[in-house]
Design brief:
Chain lengths: 141, 392
């Protein structure tokens, strides 16, 4: 029996509304959208600002620092590319600048993850084209 | 406005639910309407309104209600719509039907849900084998969340539940207490999918994780089937076959924003309008049928209706108040966790049975004030109905 070819990891689209975010991550910068109408920061990107209804926006660098807002631990395999990774945690980071971003936490056992943990961004290259912002625990000074 | 007691539920039709494969999604819908009409003692020609909440298996059924009208052979409808507020739709269908009847637009409305997400063993062998497992079948897995391994609604609710645990000290035992309470009700409901399966808190903890903090027993079932409810004027309902179930109060609440920040569902808003219209307070509710896509949803909903203080629903359920013999029976048919997943129709159908006194071994002794809730999205949409066998 020949094994079916492995199913590739899901990748974010390189074109479209996430393109500036993906391009910035490749250069190890974390960016979010800023409404040029009212200045509100937002992520994930949207066409229209729900605060002032402006449809004009730009991308801006953020510090990459924040804290864990919530997390889950995925046990069920929803996609075969993750079959060997379960259980793994998905975290939501509330960035110091306000917006929240979904990601993963590196170098931390699942049972040590807590809401409120300070984290900072790191960049993990997952293919030639895609580098993903991920996070690690930030030592508090 | 004096709508209280002027509108009634006159008929309830349910197909067999769960792993039943003998009908299509349309077949379940048609059979549910037939049974609801028979329950009410009405004919198809008595219907002049049709509202449909199409389940997942209807696909992109933008005009599903028209398709159902044609399947049922209905002529000259004065009201029709395909509606989707997720799990809050069943309650909303009753509300819009009530308003249209009160406005004189129509007189007798069938509100319908059906779904057929489960494939039979034979269908799995013959049809599904080809596509499942191929790259194309994972086309849903796009975007940034998928790249991080975040898939599906379970994972999203898990993030909100984890916040509730962090902010209010809700525990895994608290979630488990909801599952156990509902199963004890299901054990008294012969139509429940898990009727014959007892459940202890230890069993709950031993069940497999789906996505922490959710075990598989924190998540609703998946079911094939259909449910239909006939809504008409109280006056007309009194002349029909079954005792009317009067609509005392109704409300909606759709808070917007991020419920993970607030940990508040639409129940707090929807209950204000519904309780004011019904002339009741939370303490007057004698039995509550609450939308339970997850154990966690029941906890938040109990808090937001004011049955206990914010953050204290876990202790409330763990104390046994919602279980058989408790002071606030909740999800007396077993709910979507243990009976059947018919979206908002699961709590609504059980509410009708309890109000009528037709709930058999699980009938609660006091059922003059019955609360029915619906919840859709990620605590995004909410509908409230207050039902009663008494006109006033
Ligand atoms: Zn703006």
């Amino acid at each position: 029996m020949s094994a079916a070819p492995p199913i590739a990891r899901p990748m974010p689209e390189l074109e479209g509304e996430l393109a500036p975010f993906i391009a910035a991550a490749k250069e190890h910068r974390l960016m979010v959208q800023r409404c040029t109408g009212c200045g509100a920061l937002r992520f994930p990107p949207r066409e229209i600002c729900s605060r002032c209804l402006s449809s004009s926006a730009e991308w801006t660098n953020v510090s990459g620092r924040g804290e864990i807002f919530s997390f889950n631990v995925m046990h069920q395999v929803y996609h075969p590319a993750f079959a060997r990774e379960v259980p793994y945690a998905v975290i939501v980071v509330k960035l110091a600048e306000g917006p929240k971003i979904t990601s993963n936490l590196l170098d931390c056992p699942i049972d040590r993850i807590n809401i409120g943990m300070p984290v900072e961004v790191v960049f993990e290259q997952i293919s030639d084209a895609v580098t993903l912002p991920k996070f690690r625990v930030r030592a508090q000074s | 406005m004096a709508l209280r007691g002027e509108i009634a539920i006159a008929g309830l039709g349910q197909t067999e639910q769960g792993k039943v494969y003998d009908r299509s999604h349309m077949g379940f819908a048609v059979a549910a309407v037939e049974r609801a009409l028979a329950d009410a003692g009405l004919a198809r020609t008595d219907l002049d309104g049709l509202l449909l909440n199409p389940g997942i298996s209807w696909g992109n059924a933008a005009m599903g209600s028209f398709m159902l009208q044609q399947a049922l052979g209905l002529r000259d409808l004065a009201l029709q719509a395909t509606m989707n507020l997720g799990g809050a739709t069943a309650g909303a269908m009753i509300q819009y039907a009530a308003l249209a009847i009160a406005a004189g637009m129509c007189s007798t409305v069938a509100c319908v849900f059906s779904d057929r997400p489960l494939k039979s063993p034979e269908e799995q062998r013959t049809r599904a084998g080809k596509s499942e497992g191929s790259a194309a079948s994972y086309a849903f897995a796009r975007g940034l969340d998928a790249a991080y391994g975040q898939f599906g609604v379970n994972a999203m609710y898990a993030l909100v539940a984890r916040r509730h645990m962090h902010v209010y000290g809700t525990t895994q035992d608290h979630l488990g207490a909801v599952a156990v309470s509902e199963r004890r009700w299901a054990n008294r409901n012969p139509a429940a999918q898990l009727h014959a399966v007892p459940l202890s808190l230890a069993d709950y903890h031993a069940s497999r994780w789906v996505v922490e903090p959710f075990h598989v027993l924190d998540c609703c079932l998946v079911s094939n089937g259909g449910v239909a409810v006939i809504v008409t004027s109280a006056e007309r309902a009194r002349a029909l076959r079954k005792p009317p179930v009067y609509v005392w109060g109704m409300g909606q609440g759709h808070p917007g924003g991020d419920p993970a920040e607030t940990l508040v569902s639409g129940a707090s808003l929807a209950s204000k309008a519904a309780f004011a219209m019904a002339g009741i307070e939370a303490r007057d509710v004698q039995v509550a049928e609450l939308y339970d896509c997850y154990t966690f949803t029941v906890l938040v909903t109990l808090e937001d209706y004011g049955f206990c203080a914010k953050g204290e629903a876990g202790d409330f359920v763990a104390a046994g108040h919602t279980a058989p013999g408790g002071r606030l029976p909740v999800n007396t048919g077993g709910g979507q966790l243990s009976s059947s997943y018919m979206w908002g129709m699961t709590p609504l159908a059980e509410g009708v049975l309890q109000a009528r006194g037709e709930a058999g071994d699980r009938q609660v002794p006091r059922h003059d004030v019955v609360l029915v809730s619906g919840n859709g999205g990620l605590l995004s949409t909410h509908t409230t109905l207050v039902l009663s066998p008494l006109p006033s």
